[in-house]
Amino acid sequence: MTQNIELRTMNILVTGGVGYVGSIVTEELMNKGYRVIILDNLQQGHKEAILPEAEFVLADICEAQALEDAFHRFEIDAVMHMAAETVVEYSMTDPKRYFHNNIVGGINLLDAMLKHGVRKFIFSSSAAVYGEPRTTPIEEDHPKIPVNSYGESKLMFESILEWYGKAYGLKHISLRYFNAAGATKLLGEDHHPETHLIPNVLKAALPDSSRFKVQGSKSGSEDIKHRTLNIEPVKLFGTDYPTKDGSCVRDYVHVIDIAQAHILALEQIEQLSGRAYNLGNGEGYSVLEVVEAARKVTHAEIPVTISPRRAGDPAVLVASSRRAKEELKWRPKFPDLEAIIESAWKWMKKHPEGY
Asked: What rounded mean pLDDT belongs to the chain?
C-alpha cells in the first residue's frame, strides 16, 4: 500500500497527451491521483482535450532543446510516450517522416530522461510490429516482420529501449495496442484525416442537418417529412481477404482499458522492466461485423462502398493478451464490441464536428 501512495504522488510526463489515446491516459492518470505534464506539438492533438488540472507544454519531441526545457522546468518521475506518426497508409509512401519522428524524436526523449535522472518509461507500441501473422491469436513471441514503416519504427524503438535498459539502467515496458476504440464522457476520437474504422462508420450515422437533402419544399420552407439522408458511403478497403466474410479482421480494445494498462505497467515497472505486452480482447471482428454492430447501436442505415485493399493491411490481427492478464493483472472492463461502439457514439453525438 505504501508503494501505491508513493506512486500516486509521481509527476508523469505524457508525450502526445492531447491525442486520442494520450488524452484518455492523462484523464485516467489524474483520476488515480497522479500529476500529469502533457507535452504535445498539437499536430494531431487538440487544445480542447487539455484537461485543466494538467500542465501543458507545447513542444515537439524532435526539438531537443524543447525537451531539455521541459525536463528542467518540471520534476518528472516517469514518462509515458505516445507522441508518434501513426497513419499506416502514409507510412507506405512517406517513410522518412515515421523514422524521423518515431526514432529520432524518441531518442531525443530518452536522452533528456537520462540527463535528468528519469529512469521509468512506458512505451506506446503497436500490433503493427508483427506484420502479417503466421498464427492467431498473436503471442508476444510471434515473429516480428513489419509490413510498413510505422510498424518497423515501433519495433526499432523497442530494440532501442532494450539497449538503453542494458547500458543505462532504463526501466521500460512496451504496450502493443491492437485497435484502440471507444471514448470517455469527456474525451473521444477525432483525427484529421480520420482513418480509423469505427469513427468513420459512426460519422455516417450522425443526423447532421448538413447531410440532409431536401426533396421538396412548401412556400420556401423545408418539408421535414420528405427529406432523405444524403450520406457519403463508408469506404471499406478490400473484401477479398482470406477471412470469414472477405473483410479484414481486427481486435478492438476500449481506450479506457488501454489507459488502465499504462497505470498497471507504471506501478509494476521495477519488477516487469523489459517486458512487452499485447493489449487486445482476444476476439476478432471483421470490418463488415463492425458496420453491422454500429447499425444496431445507432439504429441508422449506414451505406458502404467497396474499395481496393490498402497496401500494408494484414488480413487478421487478433491478440493473445494472456501475458498482460497474468503478469500485469490486467482485466479489460469493456470487452463487448457494441459497448465499445456505444461509448464512441455517445461522445460523437455530443461532438459531431469533433473537438
From this structure: 89
- Catalytic residue numbers read 150
* Mean pLDDT, range 30-53, rounded to an integer: 96
Domains within the chain, CATH numbers bracketed: 2-190+239-350 (3.40.50.720)
Residue 33 has what pLDDT? 94
- Give residue-wise pLDDT tens across range 8-27: 479 999 999 999 999 999 99
pLDDT confidence band for 231 (50 / 70 / 90): low
294: nearest Cα among 355, 245, 346: 346
